[in-house]
Amino acid sequence: MIFVLLLILFSIIIILLKFLMPHIYQIILFELYSAYICVDTKIKDAIDGPRFNKVSLYSQSSSIAVLTGGNRGIGLEVLKKLLQCEMTVILGVRNIEAARKSIESSIDSSLLMNKVIYENCDTGDMSSVREFAKRVQERCQGINLLINNAGILEVPFKLTKDGFETQMAVNYIGHFLLTHLLMPQLIAGSKESGRISRIVCTSSDSHFAGKIKFDDFNCTKVELAIAMFTKHLHRVCMKNGWNVQPYAAHPGFVNSGLFASSALGFNSLRQSILKTTEQGSRSIVYAAIAPELESNGGAYIFNCRPSKMCKTAMDVVECRKLLLFTCDFLGIKNFGIK
User: Fold this and answer.
1) Strand stretches in 179-299, DSSP E
2) CA atoms within 13 A on the CB side of 206
């Protein structure tokens, strides 16, 4: 009886807010939907994870991969798996010495074998992204894989020196620019190998609760922007005849450093409900190497299998609008073309 009364009271409050304080009403609806997405993702992890969240590794000794943020958390586990595939990995990190120390203390020396090339890259700084891309271009005529993995979560609002909100810059805009700059190398890599080159963007089910705000882009939910970019990038690659396929990969809710400043900052809670970083890395690596995905470019991968995306990410018009909008932000005239 008390529960029913509380439910009625809550419903009345929501209705009053809708008419008297519509802005607060929208915020509450968003938070409720976000909570639903979190619970839904955890349920899927619990049900589907043990059965499907698996990736088979195989030798790709001639392949060159570019990976951002591979020195800790999920990225470090992704790096391990790429090295187990005998790939050469160009690693974009903010602090080379700290990254080297972390990696050499975590990965067996027999796997490293001079296969990791360290380069400075801060995806929140567009000049750093451009310098990193230039160094990759100088090293390699072609690359076979680009994994846009570096990311931050729920940090205090702050603008970068380029004028972008920090999380938007690090997670989306910097990787958008990097993908544009390295597209010629990805195309060349596919010609050299005779195989499709791949782009993997680390994403999240949080994109279902997102909304693009072109009039206030810094308040846009970055996960939706990543999902929309990935989906439309596949259309761009097909239209231009580029033998390159992008994928978005959701690792699930993972107990990594990303949650240090979030609401899930309590270690005991995190450990009890979240995946390990190794488990989280599997969908990203699956998107990067699984042969069965070659006919499914633009897919959204969760627990190592294609999953549905939100309606906005499937909207051709809106996705194209976002790509052109971001190009304009960065001064790009023709995406993927020098």
Assistant:
1) 197-202, 244-250
2) 15
CB 57 within 8 A of CB 77: no
Question: Which pair of structure tokens corresponds to residue 161?
Answer: 């020196």
Of 7, 337, 78, nearest in space to 185 by CA: 337
User: How far separated are the first and last CA of the chain, in Å rounded?
Assistant: 67
* Residues in CB range of 154: below 8 A, 6 or more apart: 167, 261, 262, 263
Q: Which residues of 47-68 are buried (b: 16+ CB within 10 A; e: fewer)?
A: ebbeeebebeeeebeebbbbbb
Give the containing element (helix H, strand E) for 190: helix 174-193
| CB-based contact 178:133 (threshold 8 Å) | yes
The pTM of the full predicted model, rounded to 2 decimals, is 0.87
Q: Are 336 and 184 in contact (CB under 8 A)?
A: yes
Contact (CB, 8 A) for 298 and 292: no
Residue range 86-135, pLDDT digits in tens: 999 999 999 999 999 999 999 999 899 889 999 999 999 999 999 999 99
Side chain identity at residue 53, one-letter code: N
Work out the average pLDDT over 155-160: 84
